[in-house]
Design goal:
Blueprint lengths: L1 H61 L5 E5 L2 E8 L2 H12 L6 E8 L7 E7 L2 E8 L2 H12 L6 E3 L5 E2 L8 H12 L4 E7 L2 E7 L3 H12 L7 E8 L7 E7 L2 E8 L2 H14 L4 E4 L2 E2 L6 H15 L4 E7 L2 E7 L3 H11 L7 E8 L7 E7 L2 E8 L2 H14 L4 E4 L2 E2 L6 H15 L5 E6 L2 E6 L1
Parallel strand pairs: 2-3, 5-6, 5-7, 9-10, 12-13, 12-14, 16-17, 19-20, 19-21
Antiparallel strand pairs: 1-2, 4-5, 4-8, 8-9, 11-12, 11-15, 15-16, 18-19, 18-22, 22-23
Length: 449
Amino acid sequence: MEAGAGEDLPRLRSGGWLSWRAFGLIALALAGLALLWWLALLQRPAIEADLEERAIEALRNTGESWVQVRFNGRDAVITGEALAEQPRVKVLAALENLFGVRQVSDSIVMLPERRPFTFTAVRDGRTLLVSGYVPSAYALARIAEAARALPGGLSVQGVDRLVRARGAPAGDFSAVVSFALQQLIRLPAGRVTLSDDVMTIEGRSPDLATYDALAATFRDPLPQGFRVGTFAVRPPVATPYTWAAVRDADQIHLLGHVPSQEARQQVLAAVRGAIDDARVVDEMQLADGAPSADRWVKAVSYALRQLARLPKGRVLISDTSITLEGASPDYGSFDALMAARRAPPEGFTLARFLVEPPQVSPFLWAATLIGDTLKLTGVAPSEEAGRGIVEAARSVLPGITVADDTKLASGGPPADAWVNAANFALAQLAKLREGRAELSGTRITLSGE
């Protein structure tokens, strides 16, 4: 029994030594692993920073700046809002092929697509309301910043209700919105709308300078390739609504207001129709407030036809009143003007007719009494003077029939002097049974029995 126990002792010692040796190796291995793990922990921030820097560079090279990337060790996590599947695939491929990246966790959100892609801003006084779609959170932030930076202390509403979506036209959408808002705030009230790549603006301009500036802006190319849909900005309201044409030989100077560009072309066509060889100076300005666009154009055409009968003259339309001034060259023109005076266009009145009749020399007038008829012939200096003489004749010759064939003319004595002379002549003629009184200027010739 003792011999058996002695024989087992070296084996037991050998087995124990081996066990302790194995234990030592295991402990050493574990310590090495712990050291490596600790060293890895120390290096992790540097590794993540390096990977993030190279990842950002790789994304910049793809042109997809909308995506955000962060690293958990060598594992990438990408977030953002994709406008299409192709950019998302491009981003994933760029990061998966980046040296040092173990795996890529895709947290990209695919935005819903909207057609048409619309954005609207409405200004009403000090309130600006925005609505519609934006292509990204980044664009939303820029649009909000641009809206709140507008002058005038506007109350901006609706930014928090803008919807991110796919379908925006190519280019910098937020820059187009900022441009549109800058145009809108020129109007005290109005609306600007983006629909895909078309921009529309409407409202009323506070003055002609603003209207002209906006019209020029929308005639020029719009940013980011956008097109003008409708330019529906209305010019300011003019009170009174005036228009004038001044003629001096073959030149026509157009002044005052015109309700639209279409009406402007109609006025220019009316000038060419009335005075074919006229040189036109167009200084008409757009303004709202015409009594009726159609009737206004007809009234202007009527006025230009009358002006065409005067080698030098002026016609003015103020609201619905027409004034005609000038000197008629002959009786054909004057008679036509007198006829037109009695038939103004619908809705308008010829309030002032200041056309001088043709000049005559000598300035002759006669009153001839035969039986129970008094015939007045020749010329008078004015309508008022002519009417006064008819009334005077009926007064000094009661019961006599007065036949008035007097015409108006220029070139005579002053109206008051002429009327006094004519009244004196009638008073003398009334003393005769039959006779004739003549005026040449203010010189009286009397004959009869």
